[in-house]
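Morning!

As promised:
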Amino acid sequence: MTPARGELGRGYVLQTRPWRNTSMLVEALTVDAGRIGLVARGVRSRGNRTRPLLEPFQPLLMAWTGRGELRTLTTVDAERWRPPPAGRRLLAGFYCSELVMRLLGRDDPNPEVFESYDLAITALAGDAPAEPALRRFEIELLDALGFAPPLDCDAGTGEPVQPDIDYDFLIEHGPAPAYGPAGSEALRVSGAHLLAIAQREFDDADVLRSARRLLRASLAPHLGNRPLKSRELYRSMYGGGST
Amino acid sequence: MIGSPLLRELIEALRCMPGVGPRSAQRIAFHLLERDRPGGLHLADRLQAAMEGIGRCADCRTFSEAERCELCAGTARDRSLLCVVETPADIAAVENSTAYNGLYFVLMGHLSPLDGIGPEELGLDRLEERFGAGEVKEIILATNPTVEGEATAQYVSERAKAHGLRVTRIAHGVPLGGELEYVDGGTLSHAFTGRLEV
């Protein structure tokens, strides 16, 4: 849905690229219209006061006209400038944006995706722990896109997951009671961890580790063969680690 | 469009320049043909020479017809300072208005994970060779004040620090002659974080 002309809606800039002499192409994630392409006319001319706002990770209010492939940005405003995530958190922010670019198609309004992105970026821009924020974003993104398998019930029987037994997590299906030695295809996770992940409780370091393995494996089939560039960049800067 | 095939081709070719649309291209073509044929020939000649002769400096990667550009090959500059910029145009900007007396390294872009541009695509291994060579003591990060520029600065600074180099970032602040009231929030906020003792 496109808001009425001139009506401001919440949005984030995901990516920009220069266009023509003074304009810019903006890929935005908006609460009302989902991921959309916008032309920001004239913003690259000298002394333009809109350009500094059109940066990734700034919570914005934006309005546009037109529909289809390329709309025209008419107004952009920010209630208050917020410092973007810094250091490792900046790369984590790029990771969230890259997931949205790869998993959410254009012109597919999905307010849940917007809200979870907003929550994740706000956490990364502040000083909340980054890892739980990323895991929450991953699981909510999968959920909002309808890709999330059940975590709290047995994929075969539908019985509730028991905290005290181990499960083999089957990608795109869900947990099944562990059988035999841990194999390479299945992810072995304790029932307690599955329940914690389902509740988005990431206070425990072991739960976080399980969540990271499980969510990464769940995202993989939807990402295709191309590796995530932000993940590569993170690894080349900081070695293995938390994204 | 009217005109001979050659004229049409000239107008079409002129449009490869930034800011030149069909009307400007036609105006330029007619101007050269009607009033300045020697100028047109000179332009054609210089274009040919420049397009074929200009490559990249082996050290800083700016445009140069020699293997090393004048700055890198010369002896007048302080070789312990290395300023990292995104484009050759940034070198021109710094040269024209600052007293900077060190050398440069041109990244030819910035890190942009969403565009698939990582350290390999930027050829940052070449920069790292400079870090390791021992000549450079201080890295001055002059990438653009955008999140991508910031990510790039961060990457370069991590690598430089791993080689034990001093790393500085150019200040972001209120433009001269500006009025605080009209300065955007981000710039103002940077100006406050980066305030100096007087």
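Chain A has a mean pLDDT of 89.

Hope this helps with the figure draft.
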